[in-house]
Amino acid sequence: MDAYYSCMKCMNQKVRILTMDGKQYVGTIMDVDRNNVYLKPESKGCVRTSGFYPYWGVNEQILTLSLFTLLAIALI
To answer: CA torsion sign, 6 to 29 to 12 to 41?
Structure first.
């Protein structure tokens, strides 16, 4: 639950997220639910979307990360 509330505080802000497997993601938190955080990546390169969130346009890339895999969230 701590990750959920941390993500809620950072909604619509640019963050760096570190996961338990050592990966880092930089982007803007677009939405949070009880299981996932939906991140709009900052990178200009090709991004693979790991989930589908129907409320954004077709051209927007949204990365879905499980809240259970988050290790740290930092505002940038």
So the answer is: positive
Cα–Cα nearest to 42, from 69, 21, 63? 63
Distance CA 22, CA 70 (A): 10
Report the 3 state secondary structure along 10-69.
Answer: CCCCEEEEEECCCCEEEEEEEEECCCEEEEEECCCCCCCCCCCCCCCCCCCCCEEEEHHH
- Give the rounded percent of residues in the chain with a pLDDT score beyond 90: 59
Tens digit of each residue's pLDDT (9 = 90 or more) over 31-61: 999 999 999 998 665 555 555 555 545 556 8
Nearest 5°: phi and psi at 60? -85, 135
Distance CA 12, CA 68 (A): 20
